[in-house]
Write a structure and sequence with these properties.
This is Secreted protein. This protein is of the alpha/beta class and 170 residues long. Helix content is 32%, strand content 19%. The strands form two sheets. A four-stranded parallel β-sheet has the order 4-1-5-6, covered by helices on one side. The chain has a two-stranded antiparallel sheet with strand order 2-3. A hairpin with a 2-residue loop joins strand 2 and strand 3.
Length: 170
């Protein structure tokens, strides 16, 4: 089974701290709301390289949902990606204190191994996923929302996919 690389936007690709010179500022309009995001154009290439090296599929796991394909992907050099529906309104009640996205992720991934880059994944999310029947192996990569995604996070994902044998890359 092809592994998945799940991507959040805010706090991961769009850090909440002061952006470094590698980041560019953009204004996006989503549902008549204007948002300012700071994106690093190099993130797209790095994520595509990781997906290629590990034989993984990139998937949006963000409340931006399909808007990520319109506003985020083209600005960092990603193609349109599959999207996990993330409406907080459709999330079941929390079982272990997990965030509202976690049940949506579990339903989407099924038995496929996955790495999830998010700034809000915690021990409660790991517990929820660990006890869920029929779920594939996973690595949760907590990203510091002030800094966003770094080479260290990508290296953790590459190492985990390679050492566990889930990598399907060259």
């Amino acid at each position: 089974m092809k592994p998945l690389l799940l991507l959040d936007v805010d706090g991961v690709l769009n850090p909440m701290g002061g952006p470094t010179p590698d980041f560019r500022r953009y204004r996006c309009t989503v549902d008549n709301e204007v948002y300012t995001v700071h994106l690093n154009p190099r993130h797209g290439r790095r994520l595509l390289d990781l997906a290629l090296l590990t034989g993984s599929e990139l998937v949006w796991a963000t409340t931006w949902e399909h808007h990520a394909n319109e506003w985020i992907a083209p600005r960092i050099g990603l193609p349109s990606l599959p999207v996990i529906p993330m409406s907080p309104d459709t999330a079941p009640p929390s079982e272990h204190g997990e965030m509202f996205k976690t049940p949506h992720v579990a339903e989407y991934v099924g038995r496929r191994p996955f790495v999830w880059f998010d700034d809000q994944v915690w021990a409660e999310d790991e517990e929820y996923l660990r006890v869920r029947q029929g779920l594939g192996d996973f690595l949760l990569v907590h990203v510091d929302p002030r800094q966003g995604l770094t080479s260290r996070h990508l290296g953790m994902a590459h190492e985990w996919l390679t050492l566990t044998g889930f990598s399907q890359g060259p």
